[in-house]
Amino acid sequence: MSTFPEYDLYDAIGLAELIREGEIGALDVLDAAMERVDARNPRINAVVDSWYDEAKSGLKNPLPDSPLAGVPYLLKDLGVLYNGRRTSNGSRFFSDAVADHDSTITERYRAAGLVIFGKTNTPEFGLNATTEPALLGQCRNPYDMDRSTGGSSGGAAAAVAARMVPAAHATDGGGSIRIPASNCGLFGLKVTRARNPIGPDVGEGWSGFGVGHAVTRTVRDSAALLDATHGPSPGDPYFAPPASGSYLDQVGRDPGRLKIAMTTRSAADTPVDPECVRAVEDTAKLLEELGHVVEDAEPDYDVDAMKFAMKTIIGSNMRTLLDLRAAALGRPATADDVEPISWHWAELGASVTGADYARALIVIHAISRRMADFFSDYDLALSPTLPHPPLPLGRTSMAGDDLDAYFEELTERVPFTPLYNASGNPAVSLPLHWTDTGLPVGVQLGAAFGAEDLLLRISAQLEQTRPWRDRRPDWIEG
User: Are the CB atoms for 217 and 251 separated by under 8 Å?
Assistant: First the structure.
């Protein structure tokens, strides 16, 4: 790499510091990011759209006073809008859907001085735990090209793991930040429901299941990004408990002596790989060495009721999304417009009654109250992020015709993360374990509603004790 060869060594805050101190120009940093996308993306297919010239043109304006100013950044190609560029949602039905305005979170990224120059791969409508959409093609894990990045923020995670950018936008409706963070050796924070804005076009994602934030290499980058984006925007139907101060200021603060519940059991009683059990047990020992108390315990909730709620809410939202797109195109949606499983989700949504939907909301609100009770006894909950290391590509396909079988398979693949989407609580995946063959395995920590500050403090303590930021795929020069 001819431009700024040290680029890969820095996180987002580090790059911004160099720019602010005049040691390198923001244009040189952007050129370095672009070079890496051009060189590395053909191998992994993480970045699916880019606008280099427009991004360079934007650097003619003065940068704001921000810990992220001048840092190259990528948006996920799902749900979030960038004026003048398409948001395909990983689907041919939206392949020419060009935005005429920014999403609120995009506006806040711009205001923080992030230099947005592209979009990342995602499964169609975020409906898969692997990133292999028919429209955009397979996204490959930088640690093993035959394995999945996870989903649905798989392109974002692959781009960060391959050192194209130090951080990237991501969303999470059932684990879609934490799953690819686990598979790609990154830090992934799923924020509290309504912590970040999702407008201006909608008030919530998947009836509150979905949130937006980022995947990062360092805890402090995640905190700085959250400082830039958190808080309600006008018209939001509700918002998370206000932050007590800067999230970045939480990094490095003593988390105190915490009481932590630990489980390695899938609530659905599905298998958990010994590597994932080992990851949790090793993390528990590390936490105890740091002075925390770890006990065997787990939240108690009705798994079947939550599955009903998820199917009802996702199906209803899929039906509505296809109907809205059809209205914009002036023609009905058909099965040929989307992948088969997406169509079956929409068919399910068409059969959902108002009573079904109301019952689904009652279920997730009950889970929220159970989680509130649980976190009155424990500060944190420790579990695997996933029940397996990164899986081979092609294991979970959206080309089938049996939605029930697909959903059950997905439930087995992802048994630990959706609970926090149903309840709205924040949770993180931390890259604290690696297999003997060099594959990353994440561990999950969950906390009380609104407690991102605590998650950032404990995550930073673990990061300092067992650093991970310098790990990289073997083929990425260091």
Answer: no
| Segment 22-77, tens digit of pLDDT | 999 999 999 999 999 999 999 999 999 999 999 999 999 999 999 999 999 999 99
Residue 125 amino acid letter = F
Neighbouring residues of 270: CB distance < 8 A, sequence distance ≥ 6:
387, 411, 412, 415
Place of tokens 């169609």: 124
Given a contact cutoff of 8 angstroms between Cβ atoms, the answer to whether 425 and 448 are in contact is: yes
Which residue in the list 152, 222, 383, 459 is annotated as catalytic?
152
Which of 3.30.2270.10, 3.40.50.1980, 3.90.1300.10, 3.40.50.980 is the CATH number of 5-465?
3.90.1300.10
Q: Report yes or no: 295 and 261 within 8 Å, Cβ to Cβ.
A: yes
The domain limits of the chain are 5-465
Tokens representing 12 are 């987002």
Residues 178, 429 contacting (CB under 8 angstroms): yes
Is residue 152 flagged as an active site residue?
yes
Say if residue 271 is exposed, middle or buried (CB neighbours under 10 Å; 0-12, 13-18, 19+).
exposed
Please identify which residue in the block is written with the tokens 């925007």: 233
148 catalytic residue (yes or no): no
The single residue of 76, 119, 190, 311 carrying the catalytic annotation is 76
- Whether the Cβ atoms of residue 432 and residue 280 lie closer than 8 Å to each other: no
Active-site annotation holder among 91, 103, 148, 176: 176
Q: Which residues pair with 188 in a beta bridge?
A: 215, 429
Residue holding tokens 């955009």?
A: 136
CA distance 116 to 84: 13
Q: Kind and range of the H or E element at 29?
A: helix 26-44
pLDDT tens digits, 390-440: 999 999 999 999 999 999 999 999 999 999 999 999 999 999 999 999 999
Residue 207 annotated to the active site:
no
Task: Please state, in angstroms and rounded to a whole number, the distance separating the CA atoms of residues 132 and 139.
Answer: 6
